[in-house]
Amino acid sequence: MLKFKMMESNNKEERKEWLEEKINLEKKEIKAIEEIEKIEKEELAGFEKELEEIKEEEHKIEKIIVNGKPHEWDKKKIDLQQVIILAYGTYHADWTNTVAYEDGPKENPEGSLKLNQEIYVKNKMIFHATATFNS
Questions:
Q1: Residue 104 belongs to a domain
Q2: Domain span at residue 72?
Q3: Scanning 21, 44, 70, 90, which has its CA 20 to 30 A from the CA of 54?
Q4: What does the H/E/C string look like for the chain?
Q5: Residues 81 and 118 in one domain
Q6: Does 97 lie in the same domain as 42?
Q7: Which of 91, 45, 85 is nearest to 37 (CA)?
Q8: Is residue 30 part of a domain?
Q9: Same domain flag for 75 and 47
Q10: Which tens digit of pLDDT belongs to each residue from 65-74?
Q11: Can you give the pTM of this predicted structure?
Q12: Is residue 3, in this structure, part of any structural domain at all?
């Protein structure tokens, strides 16, 4: 290998050899950096996937309780119509429908659902639904 002091050499042939060697070294270094970057990106993707799986597992909802009965539920959110359908098998917009909930997640631990409102759900969350025919 030629020494780096050749950089200042006045001999064009020596300078040419030094530059070619320097270029080859820089290319090898860049290739090594690209390989490291590829490995790091793969590792990052693996970490991100694992974190997403953990988050999904945290939000996995197996059952919710509607009017005292357990119901399978696999979504992160629910609305008034969905609760009424779970409770009564159907939804009638012209009826008076009410839904209160408790034991919910931190975003909405308890309250009443309004029409077209979605709330977050957690496993074993409790819903109290009523559907009254308006005569």
A1: yes
A2: 63-132
A3: 70
A4: CCCHHHHHCCCHHHHHHHHHHHHHHHHHHHHHHHHHHHHHHHHHHHHHHHHHHHHHHHCCCCEEEECCEEEECCCCEEEHHHHHHHHHCCCCCCCEEEEEEECCCCCCCCEEECCCCEEECCCCCEEEEEEECCC
A5: yes
A6: no
A7: 45
A8: yes
A9: no
A10: 999 999 999 8
A11: 0.58
A12: no
**Exposed, middle or buried by CB within 10 Å (0-12, 13-18, 19+), for 85?**
middle
Q: Given this model, what pLDDT does residue 8 score?
A: 55
**Is the domain of 40 the same as that of 73?**
no
Residues 44 and 90 in one domain: no
Burial pattern 46-80, b for ≥16 Cβ within 10 A else e, equals eeeeeeeeeeeeeeebeebbbeeeeeebeeeebeb
